[in-house]
Structure formats: structure tokens, C-alpha cells
Amino acid sequence: MKSVFNQLIHKILLPRGRTYDSDKTLEAGWEKVTLEGENKKKISVLFQKPDKKTIKGVVLLSHPYVSDAKQFFLKSGHAEMYLKNGFMVIIPDFNGFGESPFQNFDYTTDLVTVGNFFTRTYHDIPFFGHGISFGASNLINYCTTSNHILDKIIVENCLDSNLSYYKNRNQRLFFIMKGLMKIFPSLNKHHDYTKSISQLKHTRDILFIYNLEDTLTTIHMGKQIMTNCVLPCHMEIFKGKHLEAYVNEPVRYREIIVAFLSGLTK
Predict the structure, then answer these.
(1) Which pairing describes strands 233-238 and 127-132: parallel, antiparallel, or unpaired?
(2) 8: CB partners within 8 A, 6+ apart
(3) Which residue pairs, CB below 8 angstroms and at least 24 apart, start in 73-82?
(4) Is residue 265 predicted with pLDDT exceeding 50?
(5) CA gyration radius for the chain?
(6) How far apart are CA 161 and CA 173, in angstroms?
(7) Tens of pLDDT along 175-225?
(8) For residue 262, what is the enclosing H or E element?
(9) In this structure, are residues 191 and 252 in contact, taking their beta carbons and an 8 Å threshold?
């Protein structure tokens, strides 16, 4: 019964997760593995090493709420940016997106499964995380776990809470979410990211990225999250709307991120 209910809620609240808009030609040169996690949850992951002898680090990319799922980073140029700068890239589909079948809304354990698998082989290389929007919020929650693997993280276009996000995006879904929370108080337990950010463990530094014209995940939301951040952090603001930071200022974007992961900035 719980499984049927979860399927229904997933269909209502996250419809883009049910339609995978994929282009297999984008995956040429990438390796793919399906990992089995808690309760036999299956997570599909793409990964690739850079064409260099020395790997600077491993970057875990956490995708936004788009029908492209993990392929978002292949289309956007993020994956290529990291590879060209000497970083190995790992890109999972969250369960219920892309090629990872839906099981539940516990996206934190999706990242735990991925992190545990890759640190077995690459345990002597620093790991970093870069999450955008939906992926950024899940990256924050992952970093509240005691055994997460990420030394530094990039939090881009992150919502402050699910309710704020739905209020901005879709009034109907906002009221559905409010109603569900009254019936099932625990439904939104881990989705206030102004609280989650205060519980981060081990991560050494955080870079926040927001956009001037983003009305979905606003700069104000980012500042609300940063206010409660217990670890070193700073924010960079870019031109454009939601998900457009790299599109609008690619050179500055690359320079800031590479410098941040290389330890050249705070």
C-alpha cells in the first residue's frame, strides 16, 4: 500500500521523473554501471576519467529536476568542463529519474550508494560534489550523513525548502503539498534545507551559486541557507535565470569552480 501511495505522489509532484528525455549518442566514451543499494534500490551511474595521467579529484554531479536526469550534465557542458580540467566525473540518476527505477523519496541513500561504491576504488583521491537545484538540495542532505565522502561542495540554484519551491513553481502543487503535510507530517521532514545546512559534517568548504534573474530559486533563498551554514562558505552571483549560470558566463564560471576545487579560494 505504501509503495502504491509513493508511486502516486511521485507521479503528481515529480512528473518529469517519469519521462526520460535521453540521447544515447551523448554517452559515447562513458562507462555505465547499475549499483544496488539499500532495499535493492538500483541506481544507474555514468562515469569517466579525464584524459590525463594525474586525476585532480573526483566530482559527483547531482542533477536538477529535469527529464534529462544525468544527461543534463552531458548536454550542459558541465561534465566536459570537469574532464578537461583533470577531474574524474560521476553522474548518477536519482531513483525515479532516468534509468534508475523509482522506489522512494530517500535520495540521500542514492548518493550514499554511489559514494560508497566509488570510494572503494578511488579512496586516495579527494571527492567533490556539485549539485544544481533539486540535485543541490539532495547534495546538502547527503552531507549531513556521517559517512559522506565529499571534501568540498558546490550548491547551485538550491531551494530553501520544498514548500517555497512549489509556491514559486506551481500553486496547485503547493496546496497539494501543504495538504499532504497535514495528513503525513513526516513527508517533508528532510526538505527544509535552511535546517539541513546547519547539520553538515566533514565538508571543508562550500561554494553557493545563484542567478540574478532566477525567480524559482532566488538569491534570497540562497542567503537564507547560508545564514544557517555552520561551515566556511561564500556565494557567487551570475547573470541569467534558473540553471543559466554556466550558459551566460562560461569563462568566469569555469575559473571560479576550478579555483575553488583547487584550493585557490576560500
Answers:
(1) unpaired
(2) none
(3) 74/26, 74/27, 74/30, 74/46, 75/23, 75/26, 76/243, 76/246, 76/247, 77/246, 77/250, 78/130, 78/246, 79/48, 81/246, 81/254, 81/257, 82/50
(4) no
(5) 17
(6) 14
(7) 565 565 655 555 555 678 999 999 998 899 999 999 999 999 999 999 999
(8) none
(9) no
- What would the mean pLDDT of 245-250 be, rounded to a whole number? 97
Residue 11, pLDDT score: 73
User: In residues, how long is the chain?
Assistant: 266
**Helices 171-183 + 162-169 axis angle, to 10:** 150
Helix (H) or strand (E) holding 30: none
Distance CA 64, CA 72 (A): 8
- pLDDT value of residue 242: 96
With contact defined as beta carbons under 8 Å apart, do 63 and 130 qualify?
no
Q: Which has the closest alpha carbon to 31: 70, 69, 62?
A: 70
